[in-house]
Amino acid sequence: MFALQNVADRELVIGDIEPPAAPGPDEVQIRMKAVALNHIDVWSWRGMAFAKRADKQIPGAEGAGEIVAVGDNVKDLEIGQLVAIYGAITCGTCDPCLEGRDNHCTAKQVIYGFHTHGFFQELINVPARLAVVAPDGLPAESAALAGITFGTPEHMLFDNAKLKAGETVLVQAGGSGIGSAAIQLIKDVGAIAYTTVGSDEKGQKAIELGADEFINYKNERFEGRIRRLTKKRGVDVVFEHIGPDTFKGSMLSMRRGGKLVTCGSTTGVMGEINLNLLYQQQLHLLGSFGCTLGNMKSVMDKMASGSIKPVIDTVLELRDVEEGLIRLENRDVFGKIIVKM
Ligand SMILES: [Zn+2]
Predict the structure, then answer these.
(1) What tens digit of pLDDT does each residue of 129-159 get?
(2) Is residue 305 included in any domain, yes or no?
(3) Which of 32, 33, 268, 332 is most buried, most CB within 10 Å of its CB?
(4) DSSP 3-state assignment of 3?
(5) How many domains does the chain fold into?
(6) In terms of Cα–Cα distance, which of 62, 73, 318, 85 is closest to 181?
């Protein structure tokens, strides 16, 4: 069977590998249908994955496929079902896992495509509890976006920031996969979305997605514009995933008692925080990572009902993955790059 393998820094080849054995008693075997590209794939392509290069690491952290075999103990899944796969292997027995909050697993968190081989392979065995069934009729390209692209902002906005109708949100980088997903989730609950973008063209696309205002960060300071848009009050929630390039401005964009929720730092990991601002303004800083199995189900239901619509920039063939990674690295995308398997 085929698999995409990382053989050297910035070098991926399609190799022929041994297919997996029959699934274990609590596993299902999945034929991958669609894999979405994320920044984590750029990092592993550059050689930063913790999986050993000697093992010809297989990337891919977010995807969906069809069940082709089920283990003996698996009662609630069937051959032929389309499933979105959770992005990490967790213990399944600790309290958070038993509550479906696998992103809080106290025992382990092995991320697909980074700590272990990922989804860019023809067939893969995964724990059955981490396969989330897609609603009838949902295309694989949409289901492939449940694990990170939509699941992550769903968890950030609703579980962490407790976003409500009528509240205002600043979404950093509304043209990114996760930013464009966030705008739709925000509008779907009747909240107000302001977003930063790197070009007016991306800004227009964000408006078409439902954003209320865009701010081209290359032309103006977004924190100043946010102050004007909110009559000096600041927004209720800042949706962060950029890091040092935007963090200071994000801190200045919150209202007194506002919340900043972050799931990433693509521009570096170290930043400064004005501690006076933090306590005087009584700000809430919320770290968020991944999502729950329930978040994946919820976003796929929203997709199936049409209340949110995945923004797909490009669908690539497997041989063209590097082209997609280069575009992601250069932020030359609007929405998601999906790879057809
Ligand atoms: Zn656990």
Answers:
(1) 999 999 999 999 999 999 999 999 999 999 9
(2) no
(3) 32
(4) strand
(5) 2
(6) 62
Place of tokens 């696309």: 205
- Ranges of residues in the chain with a pLDDT under 50 are none
CATH number, domain with residue 79: 3.90.180.10
Query: CB burial class (10 A; 0-12, 13-18, 19+) of residue 52?
Result: exposed
> In this predicted structure, what is the pLDDT of residue 249?
97
Measured CA to CA, the distance from residue 256 to residue 236 in angstroms comes to 8
Asked whether 145 and 36 are in contact (CB, 8 A), the reply is yes
Rounded to the nearest whole angstrom, what is the distance from the C-alpha of residue 27 to the centroid of ligand 1?
A: 16
Rg (CA), the chain: 20
Centre of ligand 1 to C-alpha 99, Å, is 9
Model's pTM, two decimal places? 0.95
Question: How big is the CA angle at 233 (ends 267 and 235), to the nearest 5 degrees?
Answer: 40
| pLDDT one-digit tens code per residue, 88-128 | 999 999 999 999 999 999 998 899 999 999 999 999 999 99
Number of residues that make up the chain: 341
How far is 268 from 188, CA to CA, in rounded Å? 31
Distance from the alpha carbon of residue 91 to the mean position of ligand 1, in angstroms: 4
- The overall average pLDDT reported for the chain is 96
116 and 198, same domain (yes or no): no
- Could you tell me the distance, in angstroms and rounded to a whole number, from the CA of residue 105 to the centre of ligand 1? 4
Centroid of ligand 1 to alpha carbon of 289 (angstroms): 15
